[in-house]
Amino acid sequence: MENKAHKSGYVNIVGRPNVGKSTLMNALVGEKMSIITNKPQTTRHRIIGILSGDDFQVVFSDTPGIISDPSYKMQIAMNNMVNTTFHDSDLTLFVTDANERFEDDDPIIERLKKVETPLFLVINKIDSVKPEQVLQLIKLWNKRLKFTEIVPISALKKHNTQKVSDLIMENLQEGPPYYPKDQLTDKPERFFVSEIVREKILELYHQEIPYSTEVIINAFKEGETSRGEAITRIDATIYVMRKSQKPILIGKGGSAIKRLGTESRKSLEKWLETRVHLELHVKISDDWRDNERMLKHFGYK
Ligand SMILES: Nc1nc2c(ncn2[C@@H]2O[C@H](COP(=O)(O)OP(=O)(O)OP(=O)(O)O)[C@@H](O)[C@H]2O)c(=O)[nH]1
Ligand SMILES: [Mg+2]
Question: Is residue 183 part of a domain?
Answer without folding.
Answer: no
